[in-house]
Structures are given as structure tokens and as C-alpha cells.
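Journal club prep, notes for RB
We'll compare a predicted complex against what the paper describes. Inputs for the magnesium ion case:
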Amino acid sequence: MVNLPTARQTTRETMEDTQTQAATARPAAPTDSTPADAVMRVEGLNVYYGDFLAVKDVTLRFARHEITALIGPSGCGKSTVLRSLNRMNDLIPSARVEGAVFFNDQDIYDPDVDPVEVRRRVGMVFQKPNPFPKSIYENVAWGARINGFKGKRGELDDLVERALRQAALWDEVKDKLHESGYSLSGGQQQRLCIARALAPNPEVLLMDEPASALDPIATLRIEELMLSLKEQYTIIIVTHNMQQAGRVSDRTAFFSVEVDERGQRTGKLVEFDLTDKLFTQPAMKETEDYITGRFG
Ligand SMILES: Nc1ncnc2c1ncn2[C@@H]1O[C@H](COP(=O)(O)OP(=O)(O)OP(=O)(O)O)[C@@H](O)[C@H]1O
Ligand SMILES: [Mg+2]
């Protein structure tokens, strides 16, 4: 079994430093069209479900400490691509992946790589908040325990508090940590799921439409949270909401669906660029039609 390489030190001190900085400043938008420092790279990715080619030939780079949005019409393969980034597709028996996905230059589909380790380092938050039927505390502690956490109770308390603070939920739950996760509002439940995903100390956070089940205020809170988290993590988000992609992401990948003569629908990457550029001067007509609402 190989160890996945790391590109940063994850001490509590650096986490606290970055949290303080995150509260005060939003970093300048990037200007380089091709990110030099990519935490993840996808090369020639094809994903099949059985014989069905769902998405083809995707090549993309995900820049470290940035937010990348995946957008496009329903069925174009956004969730499929996202799941391939932490081997979540392994859990779907018919799914098969071709091509390579590199995490800090290690191909995560290499037979020597442990998929559980991949999912710890590349965490995931889903569309519908899915807390476990356990207390708020236990939901977050679970993330640490599956990661083999063997510290003392006090250390686990600290870890739970840190993850809940990072997910901007601590103040709302600190006096009821032992109540059920289900007792929280939808937006709070989603932040609890974010805290659970952060507890194992991942480098990358994948989010599949994390705010689509939430009201506008809870949505804005999640967006603010994402902006503060990118100081420490790399975030890849699928969203149907183009305003949201425009508000939070540094770069955007636009996917669409190609229909062949037999009526087979295959997702493909149309354009990938800085969000500001893609939304104001798209290179491809298909992108322009989509962002101006003429399609999709
Ligand atoms: N588990 C599965 N088994 C078989 N086919 C699947 C499975 N999941 C997705 N697909 C198919 O793969 C294609 C891409 O689906 P995917 O869910 O990735 O699209 P999406 O862009 O996330 O769509 P949406 O915006 O509706 O969530 C679709 O044709 C879909 O029907
Ligand atoms: Mg989807």
C-alpha cells in the first residue's frame, strides 16, 4: 500500500493561523489560465456505467487553495466526475473509470492505493444533508474515529470543537453537543456534515450541490463558509446555480452533453477557465448559450 503524498503540514497551529486570516481577507482572484500548482489533475477520464459511457475524455487541473465549480445541464456528468475524484464511483458496482486522476502526483487509481485513504484525504459533502442518527458530537467524532483516532477523550473534544468551528457551527451547537444531529435545521445539518468531512483533516473537499436543498440565507452561509475554508482546503463544487458559481469559484469547468446518431448521450468538458473569464468572454459558443440561458 502506498502512502498518498502530502503537500502541506497540518498542525493545529497552522490551522488556527489560517482561520484567523480567513476571517479578515479574501485573497485576490487568480489570473493564470492554467493553474501551475494543481492539487488534483484529471487526465483523459472516461467513466462508464456498464456499457454506457457517461462522460468522456475529461482533462482538468484543480488549483490548490482555490474553489473550482463544475457546471452544466442535468445529466452531463458533473456528479460522475466529482465522484471519480475520491473513488466514490468504486461503490457503484457498474461504474468503471479509465484515464488517470492524480492527487499530489499520485494516481489514486493505482492498485496500490487504498481507496479509504483517498476518501479521507479528499472528503465529500452531498446535496442533501445526511447526518447520522447520532449526536452532534458523535457525527463529527466519527470522522476522526474512522481515521484511526486513538487520542484521549479531551483530545477528541478538541478535535470536535475545531471541526465545528471551521464549519461555522460551534456557537450554535456548543451547548447541545449531545443532542441528535437531526434536531438541527437543514442549513445547520449541512454545516454539521461539512464539520464531519473536515474532522479527518482532508486536503480537498468535494461538494455536490451542497446548498441546493437550503433557503437563500442558509445558502449564503455555506458560500461564506466555502470562501473561508479555501484558505486551508481546496474545494471542488458542483452547482446548478450560476450566480453561486460566479460568487464563490475561482475557476469554472462547463460540461455539456453530446448526443450521437444512435441517441447515446455522453457528457464532455466544453470549457475550463477562470470564472471571471468564462462568464464574461467564453471561448465556446456552447458555453455562451448556456450562461446566457439559451440552453439547458
Ligand atoms: N449509478 C448510475 N448508474 C447508471 N447510470 C448512471 C448512474 N449515475 C449516473 N448515471 C448516468 O450518467 C450520466 C451522468 O450522470 P450524473 O449524475 O453524473 O449527471 P449530473 O451532471 O450530475 O446531473 P444532475 O445535474 O442532474 O445531477 C447520466 O446519463 C446518468 O443517467
Ligand atoms: Mg449531479
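Talking point for the session: The mean pLDDT is 89.
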